[in-house]
Amino acid sequence: MAREKIHIRKIENATARHVTFSKRRRGLFKKAEELSVLCDADVALIIFTSAGKLFEFSNLSVSEILKRYLSLSKNLEKSEEPSSSQMLQMQLLERGTHSKLTEKVAEESKNLRQIGGKEPPGLTIEELQNLEERLEAALNKVIEKKTEKNTRLINDLKQKGMQMALENEILRQQVTRIYDMKGVAVLKDTSKGQTSGSTADGCNSSSFLQEPDSSDTSLKLGLPWNV
């Protein structure tokens, strides 16, 4: 059965979009690192999120690889010295990159102030919605971490409970064996007492039976005197 084709389109849910971006970004950076190591290649990646946050990766330096990229041209592909126009492009790129980075730092600082409640009121609907999405993503992370810790704690308690139940069962078996051994000893002592009592009773009975014989003998010896 043929697999259904997955349509690539924008993820509308902000939290799901943030999670997908984080996973794909890590995967992309990992592939870039593997490519640079396995093939001895110089790799540079620059990513800006929809909110304007910057992510970059390079096995050397992003600016260094960009310089090498701008130094190449179709007409001077083998030239080692960049042309004046290329140098100008590099300078403009560096200035633009520096300006963008400065703007991003200022924006991130503003975002932190907004999250901490230190930003003055008067935000637009779009800014409030963006702030809500960031707070929701942060809350989801907190809930996820809390759930992981609670699950780990529950598993530890279950393990300890099973261990205590096993120890209690072993202790119960030991106590049962001790009581069984004491019961056997009591039965042996009782049997000995009954045997001794029976022997003594037999001796007394024999003595009692012999006494009438002696009396009869005395009576028989005394009969001729009475006659």
Automatic annotation (TrEMBL):
Q: Which InterPro entries match?
A: MADS-box/MEF2_TF, MEF2-like_N, TF_Kbox, TF_MADSbox, TF_MADSbox_sf
Pfam families reported for this sequence: K-box, SRF-TF
Would the keyword DNA-binding turn up in this protein's UniProt record? yes
Record-level Gene Ontology MF annotations: DNA-binding transcription factor activity; protein dimerization activity; RNA polymerase II transcription regulatory region sequence-specific DNA binding
| Compartment list | Nucleus
One GO term of the cellular component aspect? nucleus
Q: The K-box domain covers which part of the protein?
A: 91-181
Polar residues compositional bias, start-end: 192-209
Q: Which PROSITE patterns is this protein grouped with?
A: K_BOX (PS51297), MADS_BOX_1 (PS00350), MADS_BOX_2 (PS50066)
- Where is the MADS-box domain positioned along the sequence? 1-61
Cite the residue spans of the region called Disordered: 190-227
Recorded superkingdom: Eukaryota
Sorted alphabetically, the keyword list is: Differentiation, DNA-binding, Flowering, Nucleus, Transcription, Transcription regulation
Can you cite a GO biological process for this protein?
Answer: cell differentiation
Q: What is this protein called?
A: Uncharacterized protein
